[in-house]
Design goal:
- The complex is a heterodimer of chains A (about 140) and B (about 575).
- Chain A contains 5 helices and 5 strands, in the order E-H-E-H-E-H-E-H-E-H.
- Chain A has about 140 residues and is α/β, with parallel strands linked by helices.
- Chain A has one domain: Rossmann fold (3-Layer(aba) Sandwich), CATH 3.40.50.
- Chain A starts with 6 loop residues before the first strand and ends in a 9-residue tail after the last helix.
- Chain B is an alpha/beta fold.
- Chain B has a single domain, classed as TIM Barrel (Alpha-Beta Barrel), CATH 3.20.20.240.
- In chain B, helix 15 links the parallel strand 11 and strand 12.
- The chains are: A alpha/beta (about 140), B alpha/beta (about 575).
Chain lengths: ~140, ~575
C-alpha cells in the first residue's frame, strides 16, 4: 500500500515578482514525488488560503523576498486558523532576517528557509513534518 | 565556405574550430600525457559558470586565420569590440553609480547626498514595490511593502523631496522603473523643471525595459502591446525633448539574476533591443533619431573571462545589428553603451564578508569588459538593503580598482589573449543562434508569449541549483568551507514609513486642486484610447499632483492588466 502523494501549494504573496526560487522549489518537490500547485505571482493571503483549501493541500510553501513577511505571514496564519487548517504545514523561504524568525514561528510558521538552503532540506522537512495521510483502502 | 545568415553572420566552418599543429601534438605526447598520468586533473571536464566547456589551454590554433583588422579592430571604431571610445578610462573613468533607495524620500535623499560626498559620480534610484507596480503607498496591496525594497514615491511631491538639493544638470540620474516609467520620469522632469533645470541639459536614464519584466523580473502591470506603446512614447518624447537622456536601459541583469547563462543574458537582452528598435521604427521615427540614446544594462557574474568575453561580444553584435540589420548611419547608433551591476544572485547570506571578494572579481570583469557605469553590491546583499557602511565599502571597491590597480591605464588590456578572443567569438556566434531562433518564432514578443526565454532561464537556473546541491559547483561558505556564523548588523526600514507616506498622501489630496486633477486624468484616459504620445498628458497629470496610483489606475482601466501563463 502506498500513501497518496504529499500535496503542496507553492505561493508568491505580495507584490514581489522574483520567482526563480519558487519555481526551483516547486520543481524539486515534484521531482521528489509530491504534487505541487504553484499559485503564480501577486497572490493575497486570502487567495493563497483559499487555493490551499480548494486544492486540499498538506503543506503551503511561501516564497517572499520583499521584506513584507511580517505583515503577510501572520495574516496567512490567522486565515488558516479561521479555516481550521492549522494542521496544514506552513513553511517559508526567502529573505527573512534572523530577528524575525521567532515571531513567525510563534504565529504558526513551521520553518523558515533562508538563502543557501538546499532543496533537499526543504523536501526532507516537508516529508518529516507533514501530517500523516491515510493510505487508500484496498 | 562562408555563409550569410539573416543576421549577417558569416558562418565560416573554420572560424572557431581548432586545427592542432605538429608542435602541439608533440607537446601533448611528450609533456602533457606524462603529466596527466602522474597527476590527473581534478575533473573530467571544466566549465564556465554558465556551463560552457572550457579547454585546458588556448593557443594560436584556436584562432586560425585571425586577422586583427578584420576580426577585432581598434577601440572607438566599428564594431567596437575593444571599447566604444578610443581612450576609454584614460579619458574618463567609468561612472560610479550605486543603486540606492529605501524608506521615505527624505531618507533616500540623505543617502544620495552621502554617496555623492563619498565620491560616487552618478545617481541611481531604487523604488519600492508599490511604486514599481504603480500603486500609491496607501493602496491595500502596499500593506507591508512601503519603503522596504526601495524608496516610496507616490507623487510629484515625493519626487521633489527625493531630488532636493541634488545638482541635476551636473550629475546624471538613473531610475530603475519599468511599468510606470513614463509616470516616474514625468515626475522627475517636472521636479527638475521646478528646480530650474533645463530639460535639454538633463542627463540620466530610465530603465523602462518592459520586455525583460515579462521574461524575468515580472513587475509588469499592463499587457505587452500597450506596454510597448508606452516605451515607444517615452523614446519618441526623449528624442525631441531630452537629448542627453537615455529613455531606455535594455537589461540583461535581471535575466541573469533569474538564473540564465551568460549567452542567454546577452542574446535575450540584445534581441529585446532589436524588438524595441523595430517598434519605434514602426511608429515612424528614423533609426538615427533615437538609436544613439538606447543604452544597456548587464550583469557581472563570477567567471571573469566569460564575462569579459560577453561584454566584448555585446558591443560587436549590437554594432553589426544596428548597421547591417537596421541600416543606421550615425556611428553613435552603433555603440552599445552599458551600465553593469555585479551579480546579486552570486552573493551569500553565509559568511557575508566573502561577498566583498566576489564583488571585487565581478567589478574587475566589468571594467576589463569596458563598462561605462558600474554598481557594486554590498556585502549584506542577501540579508537586506545596504547599511551605510556596507554601501560605502562597495563604493570604495570601485575606487580602489580605479585608482590603485592599473586597470584604467590601458584600453581593452586583455585583447590578444587566445582564450578571450576565442570566447568572444564563441559568445557572438551563440548569440546569433538565439537571434535566429527568436526571429523564427516571430520576434521577442511572440517568443515571450510562447514562454521560450522564460523556460530557457528556468532550465539554466535548475541546472545551476542541481550543480550546487551535488557539489559539482562549490559556493564557499555555503556547501563547502562552512563555519559558525557571526551575525552582522543589517538595515531595518523604519516601521513608521508607511504611516508617514499615508499621511503625506492625505495632506496632498486635501491641498491640491481636485477638479484639475480629475480633468487631467480624464484627458489622459481619452488620449490612451488613441495613438497619441501619452507623455504630454502624463506630464499634465503630474503637474496637477495626480498620484502615481491615480495615473496608473487610468491606464489600467484602458489597457487592462496582465497575468502570465501558469507555470507547469
Amino acid at each position: 500500500m502506498t500513501a497518496s502523494p504529499i500535496r503542496v501549494l507553492v505561493a508568491k504573496p505580495g507584490l514581489d515578482g522574483h520567482d526563480r526560487g519558487a519555481k526551483i522549489v516547486a520543481r524539486a518537490l515534484r521531482d521528489a514525488g509530491m504534487e505541487v500547485i504553484y499559485t503564480g505571482l501577486r497572490q493575497t493571503p486570502e487567495q493563497i488560503v483559499n487555493a490551499a483549501l480548494q486544492e486540499d493541500v498538506d503543506a503551503i510553501g511561501i516564497s517572499i523576498l520583499s521584506g513584507a513577511h511580517n505583515s503577510i505571514l501572520p495574516r496567512i496564519c490567522e486565515l488558516l486558523r479561521q479555516e481550521e487548517m492549522e494542521d496544514v504545514l506552513l513553511v517559508v523561504g526567502g529573505i527573512i532576517p534572523n530577528e524575525d524568525i521567532p515571531a513567525l514561528k510563534s504565529a504558526g510558521v513551521a520553518e523558515v528557509f533562508q538563502p543557501g538552503v538546499s532543496t533537499q532540506e526543504i523536501v526532507d522537512f516537508i516529508r518529516t513534518h507533514v501530517r500523516q495521510k491515510n493510505a487508500p483502502a484496498g | 565556405m562562408a555563409k550569410e545568415t539573416e543576421t549577417g553572420v558569416e558562418a565560416k566552418q573554420d572560424a572557431i574550430s581548432r586545427r592542432v599543429s605538429a608542435a602541439e601534438m608533440e607537446w601533448q605526447e611528450k609533456i602533457l600525457k606524462p603529466a596527466l598520468e602522474r597527476s590527473p586533473e581534478r575533473r573530467r571536464a571544466f566549465t564556465t559558470t554558465s556551463g560552457v566547456e572550457i579547454e585546458r589551454l588556448y593557443t594560436p590554433a584556436d584562432l586560425p586565420n585571425f586577422n586583427y583588422e578584420r576580426d577585432l579592430g581598434d577601440p572607438g571604431e566599428y564594431p567596437y569590440t575593444r571599447g566604444i571610445h578610443s581612450t576609454m578610462y584614460r579619458g574618463k573613468i567609468w561612472t560610479m553609480r550605486q543603486f540606492s533607495g529605501f524608506g521615505t524620500p527624505e531618507e533616500t535623499n540623505q543617502r544620495l547626498h552621502y554617496l555623492l560626498s563619498q565620491g560616487q559620480t552618478g545617481l541611481s534610484i531604487a523604488f519600492d514595490l508599490p511604486t514599481l507596480m504603480g500603486y500609491d503607498s496607501d493602496h491595500p496591496l502596499a500593506e507591508g511593502e512601503v519603503g522596504k525594497c526601495g524608496v516610496a514615491v507616490s507623487s510629484l511631491a515625493d519626487m521633489e523631496v527625493l531630488l532636493q538639493g541634488l545638482p541635476l544638470e551636473q550629475v546624471s540620474t538613473s531610475m530603475t522603473i519599468n511599468s510606470p516609467a513614463a509616470v516616474i520620469w514625468a515626475m522627475y522632469l517636472v521636479a527638475a523643471e521646478k528646480s530650474g533645470a533645463d530639460w535639454k541639459k538633463l542627463s540620466g536614464t530610465i530603465q523602462n525595459d518592459i520586455l525583460k519584466e515579462y521574461i524575468a523580473q515580472k513587475e509588469y502591470i499592463f499587457p505587452p502591446a500597450p506596454s510597448m506603446r508606452l516605451v515607444v512614447d517615452t523614446i519618441s518624447f526623449a528624442a525631441r525633448e531630452t537629448p542627453r537622456w537615455n529613455p531606455i536601459s535594455v537589461s540583461g541583469y535581471h535575466i541573469r539574476e533569474a538564473g540564465s547563462t551568460a549567452v542567454q543574458e546577452l542574446a535575450f537582452t540584445l534581441r529585446d533591443g532589436v524588438e524595441y528598435v523595430e517598434w519605434v521604427l514602426r511608429a515612424g521615427l528614423a533609426v538615427d533619431d533615437f538609436a544613439p540614446r538606447i543604452s544597456f544594462f548587464f550583469n557581472a557574474h563570477n567567471d571573469l573571462f566569460e564575462e569579459v568575453a560577453k561584454f566584448r561580444a555585446a558591443r560587436k553584435v549590437w554594432a553589426r545589428v544596428m548597421r547591417e540589420r537596421f541600416g543606421a548611419k550615425n556611428p553613435r547608433s552603433w555603440t552599445c553603451r552599458f551600465h553593469t551591476q555585479t551579480a546579486g544572485c552570486s552573493l551569500t547570506a553565509q559568511q557575508p564578508y566573502n561577498n566583498v571578494v566576489r564583488t571585487t572579481i565581478q567589478a574587475l570583469a566589468a571594467v576589463l569588459g569596458g563598462t561605462q557605469s558600474l554598481h557594486t553590491n554590498s556585502l549584506d546583499e542577501a540579508w537586506s538593503l545596504p547599511t551605510e557602511d556596507a554601501a560605502t565599502l562597495a563604493l570604495r571597491t570601485q575606487q580602489v580598482l580605479a585608482y590603485e590597480s592599473g586597470l584604467t591605464e590601458v584600453v581593452d588590456p586583455l585583447a590578444g589573449s587566445y582564450l578571450l578572443e576565442k570566447l568572444t567569438l564563441q559568445t557572438e556566434r551563440a548569440c546569433y543562434e538565439y537571434f535566429d531562433k527568436i526571429d523564427a518564432m516571430g520576434g521577442m514578443v511572440a517568443a515571450i508569449e510562447k514562454g521560450f526565454p522564460q523556460r530557457e532561464i528556468h532550465e539554466a537556473a535548475y541546472a545551476y541549483q542541481r550543480a550546487i546541491e551535488s557539489k559539482d559547483k562549490i559556493i564557499v561558505g555555503v556547501n563547502e568551507f562552512t563555519s559558525c556564523e557571526q551575525p552582522i548588523n543589517i538595515l531595518v526600514v523604519d516601521q513608521g514609513v508607511a504611516a508617514t507616506q499615508r499621511r503625506k498622501l492625505r495632506e496632498l489630496r486635501e491641498r491640491r486642486n481636485h477638479a484639475q486633477v480629475q480633468s487631467t486624468l480624464e484627458t489622459l484616459g481619452n488620449a490612451a484610447r488613441t495613438d497619441q504620445n501619452l507623455m504630454p498628458f502624463i506630464l499634465n497629470c503630474v503637474r496637477s499632483y495626480a498620484t502615481l496610483g491615480e495615473i496608473c489606475d487610468v491606464l489600467r482601466r484602458v489597457f487592462g492588466k496582465y497575468e502570465e501563463p501558469a507555470f507547469r
